[in-house]
Predict the structure.
Amino acid sequence: MIDFEMDAKQAAEEKLAARLEAFSNSLKRKRDEAIAGRKESGIEEEWVLAEESYQGIDDANRGSVAMGKPSSPYGGYVNGKPAQKSTRSTVLLNITRPYVDAASARVGDMLLPTDDRNWAIKPTPIAETVKSMMGQLQGVPPEQAQALIQQVNAKAKESSEGAQTQIEDWLVQCQWHAEVRKLIEDCARLGTGVLKGPVPAKMRSRMATKQDGAITMVIKESIGPESKSISPWNFFPDPDCGESIHDGGYTWEVDTITAKRIRDLRGLPGYIGSQIDKVLEQGPQNRSTDASQYKAQKAKDSDVYEIWYYYGMAEREDLVAAGVDIPDDGDTSVPAILTVINDIVVKGALNPLDSGDFPYDVMPWQRKTGQPWGTGVAVQINTPQRMLTAAARNMMDNAGLSAGPQIIMRRGAITPADGQLTLAPRKFWWVNDNADVNAVNQAFMAVNIPTLQNELNNIIQFALKMAEDVTGLPLLMQGQAGAATPDTVGGMQMLNNNASAVLRRIARLFDDRVTEPHIRRYYDWLMEYGEDDSIKGDFQIDARGSSALVERDLQNQAILQMGALVMNPAFGVDPEKWFTEALKAQRLDPQRFLMDEEKKAAMAQQPQPMAPQIQAAQIRAQADAQKTQMQLQAEAQQAQIEAQVKVQIAEMQTEAAVQKMQLDTDRDTVYVQAQSQRDATNAQAKMAELQIKREIAMLQYATQEKISLETVKAKLASDAMKLQVQKELAGADGKGPQVVTPVVEPAGRAPEGQAFQK
């Protein structure tokens, strides 16, 4: 009987072990799918580019910052010869780092103020309690019903304030501000930040007590929720999640753990001892991903393991095999958390939130369509950074080449007196015997290479301007005033509003992607595990980072300018509230300046002595208001005058352009007339020249034929008349014109077969 029970128990254990092994294999397939999906998305290559850009590393200077021994077994030699170092400049003016740091610092300063929260918990407009009371208030007088509803609303508001205080206490204990600043830095550098929480963690609180003159330090430990930022390199969501990881089926997180810490896990609640022994027996396995390549704490020892955390749905039987006690409520799949080392499940647990939400929030700096990742400042500024680097390196190369002239020497013409073909001051050179003495002056030639500094500097300035445009982070947002910064108050305020448009977009995105879902999960934790039932109720999360913080930062200047109007009773402004907001605008704690109740009561009993001061303050306030109004009027007049001046300048420029056009037209007319006169004169001169040539030809002909010039002229005239008559007769009888070649028969006898033609 005993052997049968032992065999049955052993069979059950073997069955659970086989189930657990199959479960581990299925989880491995999901993990490999998540790793491959993230790699195929191309985001890892973008992260490498962002990391190297932030560090100021590229292909040209990658080896120049290496320290330690050479990686080659031949040291610094190649093929037995010293390795040739490149003479090109590798300087890199890194503007990526200051842009990333300025962006993250500015966003963190606006979203995480020291005197306010970027979230609040408020009762819903129509709480469930009020809805349930509506049926019970039938027949109750309206006054009583309204009083009861107001009482319920006041109770709900008090409960929401209590819940807000409790959640804020949890966030303070886990250093919420520090973790969110890490997320913002990752987001600005890589384009993506990941915040994890709430997750259960051990919290310690210290309290000092004094009893009988002795001070005792009491340390209290408890389990509470915490939040922490994790590196995006260590996070792997479901590849099919789209832009929201919460639309996917699971998430994975990877970290490293040493063998010592694994041994410490044995015996802790939830961990499976036999599985931990199996992990230690196997030793560290090959890394399944290089996700931790940029982790500063990455160890190089051989006892470093990868530990994976899975959040998603799991089958009930698989969790039972992992040692999880699950009540049978009919569901076959439940939200679970699994810890895997070396592809072996070492711990299983239920998701602490009944909703099954993943405890991760992914914040993109600039959205990517269809992906949960984003594009950061380091990638946005990559093109201007490369432009600046190329221009600066070419400028340095040209500076090195132009530092001294290039020497061109004719070989064999001269010989150095010291036998060294080097340049030195006051050095003697001998003229060779077979050299041409006249060519000695041309033995040396110095060629200076231009630096092209102005041209390259224009490219550098263009790259710096493009860096502001592509990132949406003008120098004004970084605390630097450019040359175009207006001097007027209104112009400066408009410039501030325009410069902060990018910050407002990021703040609203932060509200939607991080603040609201993260605080909502803390609210769910409070509803499930909170010990004080009086602070539980029907509440909603008000993520007000963009409205209450970013806008308030823009309104600080206006709050300070309102000081001149506060003391005027016509406006009905509370000076005490204004003073509190003015102190917050200067990042000062108002509690440090407020009077206690006793001083307030004492001053309230003595109103008369303060009346002159109040009256004087009102007078000063009115004077300041008038001064402000006069300043605004002066600025308006100045703007009007500037506009008129601009209009006059434009009119003068237009008139000058018209005059110039008229002058150009007149000049063209004169030129055309002069050209026409020159053409007429040339034509007359040509005709005179032809006439002279004709006369000379006739004289030569007359001389050769021994006839007089008058006879030739008469004969030509007679032939011309005959030709004219023939033309007229041809026209009279309807025939076309005929060409008749007149023949000139001189007095003498011409040679046979020849005729003299005109």
Remarks:
- Residues 298 and 625 are 62 Å apart (CA to CA).
- The two ends are 154 Å apart (CA to CA).
- The chain has 20 helices and 20 strands.
